[in-house]
Amino acid sequence: AEKHPGALPSTASLISLQPCDFVLSALKPAQDGHGIILRGWNRSGETVPVTIRLLLPFKKAFTTNLMEEIENELNLQPDGSLNLEAGPHRIVTIRLE
To answer: What is the pTM of this model?
Structure first.
């Protein structure tokens, strides 16, 4: 593999989700062109704590509805990860800026 002068590691995951019951269903640019939309769903019948780790740093994160309208701001952890709860069989949409 050829070396490059960039800051990114030679191998990495863009997104890491835990637990495995929370499944990524979409990762796309926001409809208004500002930020990225991450959508996932809890396939289990119980509320699960979800941890999302991102390779790239973001300054803000929000939950949104399916129309991508902001609902609540989420606290980014010092390491850039997000922690939230996903209800049983719930779709969760997050806007990253």
So the answer is: 0.83
